[in-house]
Every structure is written in C-alpha cells, then in structure tokens.
Amino acid sequence: MNTIEDIELMLGAPRADVRALYDRAATRYDHFRDLWLQLAGAAAEQALIDDLRAVLRPGARVLDAGCGTGALARQALRIEPTAQLTLLDQSSGMLAEAADVPGEHVVGSVLQLPFSDASFDVVVSGWVIETVPDPMAAVQEYLRVINPAGHVLYTFCSLPHGFFSRVGSAWLRAAVGRGFAGEFLPESRTPWHDCERSHRIEGTGGLVTEVALRKCCRVGAPLLPADLSSGDSGV
Ligand SMILES: C[S@@+](CC[C@H](N)C(=O)[O-])C[C@H]1O[C@@H](n2cnc3c(N)ncnc32)[C@H](O)[C@@H]1O
Question: Angle CA(176)–CA(154)–CA(200) in degrees, nearest 5?
C-alpha cells in the first residue's frame, strides 16, 4: 500500500472519466474495498451473499456486472463451484485484477450489456449503480438479461434519511464520491420500488442498501414482502 497515493486518490478532484479513475485505482482497489466494508458496507454485502446462497443452483449462469476485481464472482464460486461465471467491467485495469477468476471476462458497459435477453440465471452487481449516470437503466439491463425465473442482486451506497446522519457521513460520502465516483443515491433515484418482489435492507443510517429482484417489473406495482424462492421457481 502506498499511503500518499491512497490519500491523493481519496482527496483528489472528482474525475469525469469513471473508467480512467478505476483503471488508475485498480491495483489498490481491494484495500479500499475492505475499508469500505468495515466502515459501512458490510451489512448490505452480507445480505447480498445470503441472497446469493439462497438462489444459486448447480451450473447457474452468473453475471458479475461491474465486477471490479471480482470479489462477488469469487464469492459465487465459493458458494457454488459449478457456477458458470461471466465478469463484465468497463475498466480493463479492474478486470485484469480478476484474471484468476475462471469464466468469461468482458470489457463492456452495464448500461448496454453485450448479452442477449435471458442469458443468465443470476446477475450480481456490488457497488456499481451509484457510479453510473442512470442507475435505473443499469438495473433494467440486469433484468433484461436474466431468464424469467432469474434473480438480480445488487448493493449500492444510499443517502441517509436523517439530517444528523447526513452531516455525520458527509466526509465518507465526499471520499467515496471523489475517490470512486460513487454517488449516495437518494430514494428517488433507486430502482428497487419498480418491482413487485424487491427486498431492501438498509444499514448504517441508510448508507448502504441491498436489493434482490425477480424478473417481474411492473412500474407502479405494489411492493410485496421479499420472497426469493416462491413463485415461478428458483434458478
Ligand atoms: C466500486 S467498484 C465495485 C466493484 C465490484 N463490483 C466490487 O464489488 O468490488 C465499481 C465498478 O463499476 C465499474 N463501472 C462503473 N461504471 C461502469 C459501467 N458503465 N459499465 C461497467 N462497469 C462500470 C467500475 O469500473 C468499477 O470496477
């Protein structure tokens, strides 16, 4: 770890070019990922891993969308060693750090996934939608590429509700914004409510959120209790 470069990364000017930002951060990204989980992200990430364990079946086709260094793809393999993985990221630097993960490695955008409809059983996407200009468009793409019985699981940084939580987390939000192009999404910009069977977990005063969706989006549909396994079967 290079401390000076790490501080520079966290406090540097915001960069318009998210791909260049992640190419630059790639070799040190896992260090910051661990820190983020310790500071705020652990509850949502654990919820995603628990949901992944609930839905993964032998041979499942899994897309890690915005895979970064491949942390969630590795997790999927630990849970289900026969999973068929596809890792996609727009940063070739990040993707290179996931080179040891077996599966297809694709440079591409979550806003325009280079896959046909219903290509996957599960899409996982950790801490990605807050770094794209249109989070809803990314989630719509995730839903497009899962099969009718599939699952989409994602985490993101979410804007705290209360005034004091917002003030108290301002430094963290600034660091994540400047260092990693992550916007803490307000409820109005989170896509979870579009689906009948979504499932939201908030933690740390609203700083993190995990969502699990089935392919059942109907805008304006009432939100039903989370139930990943009922209905039109699992993966
Ligand atoms: C905060 S990192 C999360 C990485 C990984 N999912 C994880 O859990 O550690 C955000 C990742 O999203 C990628 N990303 C950002 N915008 C993207 C886009 N439009 N298409 C594909 N990947 C994107 C970045 O390159 C980066 O690897």
Answer: 100
